[in-house]
Amino acid sequence: MTHVIPESPCPACAYPMNRADNVHGPAGAPEVGSLTLCLNCGQLLVFDAPSSLRMPTREEISEVMADSKAWEVIEKSQYFIKERGPIRRAR
Ligand SMILES: [Zn+2]
User: Fold this and answer.
1) To the nearest whole number, what is the mean pLDDT of the chain?
2) If you measure from the C-alpha of residue 88 to the centroid of ligand 1, how many angstroms do you get, rounded to a whole number?
3) For residue 39, how far is its CA from the centre of ligand 1 (angstroms)?
4) Which one, of 61, 68, 8, 67, lies nearest residue 35 by Cα?
5) pTM (2 decimals)?
6) How far is CA 17 from CA 47, 52, 58, 62, in A?
7) Considering only Cβ atoms within 10 Å of each terminal Cβ, which end of the chain, N or C, has fewer?
8) Rounded Cα distance, 43 and 84, in Å
């Protein structure tokens, strides 16, 4: 399910993110601590607040890597995003 979120720039590429999809689990809106990917650059990000995204900590990356199914989804998604190339070039 796609959720409209307050517009927030990707901390890696500044792409303005305003939608988030829940790929598994309950179809709720993203919460503080939810992971997401930037559709422009593929960076793994964490919701700090509904309108604030940040880079994940080493611990958060290790935690999600320990969940092989979740990590597989992330890696495949990042592969497709990087193969497609950015939606919008960095300025
Ligand atoms: Zn990005």
Assistant:
1) 89
2) 10
3) 7
4) 61
5) 0.86
6) 12, 10, 23, 25
7) C
8) 14
Distance 47 CA to ligand 1 centre (A): 14
- CA angle, residues 44, 81, 76, in degrees to nearest 5: 70
Query: Residue 4 C-alpha to ligand 1 middle, in angstroms?
Result: 17
* 91/88 Cα distance (integer angstroms): 9
Phi and psi angles of residue 63, each rounded to the nearest 5 degrees, phi first: -60, -45
Res. 26 pLDDT band, cuts 50 70 90: low
Q: Which structure tokens are listed for 40?
A: 């422009």
What digits encode the pLDDT tens for the residues 32-51?
999 999 999 999 999 998 77
